[in-house]
Write a structure and sequence with these properties.
The chain starts with a helix and ends with a strand. It is built from seven helices and seven strands; from the N terminus they run ααααβαββαββαββ. The protein is elongated, with a radius of gyration of 39 Å. The protein folds into two domains: 90 residues; 152 residues, Heat Shock Protein 90 (2-Layer Sandwich). The protein is an alpha+beta fold. It has a five-stranded mixed β-sheet with strand order 2-4-5-7-6, covered by helices on one side.
Amino acid sequence: MNNNLSHNFSISAMSFLISASGLICALASASHPNGIDMREPIFASAVLLTFSIAVASVCALFNERSRSMSFRLKEEVAKKNVELEAVSKNLAEFKGQMLQQEKMAAIGTLAVGLLHEINNPVNFCLMAVNVAQESPIAKADPGLNECLTDAKLGMQRIQHIVSDLKVFAYRDPDAAFVMKSFLFEKALESATRLTMYELKGVSMCRDLPNDTLVRGDEAAIVGVLINLFSNAALAMRKARTPKPAIQVSAAWQDGRLHVAVRDNGPGIAPENISRIFEPFFTTREVGQGLGLGLSISHRVIERHGGTLHAESVAGEWTRMSFDLPRAD
C-alpha cells in the first residue's frame, strides 16, 4: 500500500511539473516582446504538453491496474500455499494412521492365530500341573510344589500375554469407533504386561482411585499406555538413568479421569517439546521408529474428548497426561 501511494505521488508530481513547465513557458512567451508572434509555437507546445500529460495519466492508470493485479495474485498465491501446507499435514497424518492400522491389523491376525495355537497346549500343561500338585509326592515335597506353582504361574502369564495382545491389536475392519465401559486399571495392567520386557529394571509405581471405570476404546488406550511406557523406558535406558522409575497416577475431576505418566529420565529438549506430537517427528536413530506413536496417541485421546499433554524439565523428568470420560 505504501508503494502504491508513493508511486501515485510520483505520477502526480510529474504531471504537475509538466503543467507548471507549460505555464511558465506560456508566461515567458507572453512577456517576450515578440510574444504575439509566437502564439502558434506556444499553442503547439501546449497541445504537446497536454498530450504528454494524457499519455502519462493513461500509462499510470494501466500501471496501477497491473500493480494491483500483481498484489492480488501474490495474496492468492500466499493463501494457496497455506492451504497446501494444511493439506500436506493432513496427508501426513492420514498416512501415519494408515500405516498404524495396517500394523495393528497384522498384529491382530497374528494374535488370533497365537491364541488358537497356544491356548490348547497351555491348557494341557495347566491341567498336568494341577494333577501333579494334587499328587502325594508333590504335597510331601515343598520344593517340588513350589516349582509346580511357578510353572502354573508361567503358563497363566502366557495366556494373559496372548489375550492382552489380542485386545490391544485386534480390530474389526467393518466396526465403527464404539465407546464402551472398561476399567482403566485393567487396561494399565495389560499395558504393563505387554511392555514388561522393555520395563525390565524400571520401578513401576501406581496411585489410582478405587473407581477407575471409564468409557472409551480399551484397546486404543492400552496402545497409548504402551507407547508412553516404551518411550520412557527407551529414553531412560539410553541416558543410563540411575534407578529408573515410572509413576502412573490418576484422579477424578469434573467427570473425567485425569491420568499422568511421569518418569525420572533425561526429559525432552525445550526445542522438541512443541514438536513431539507431529507425525514422523522422532529423535530416535534410523530404524528405531517412524515417529508416529505420540501423534497417533494424541489423536486417540482427542477422539475420547480429551487432550494428551506433555511437560518436561530437561535432565530431570517428563510427564505425559491425558483424561478419559467417566462411564455412564
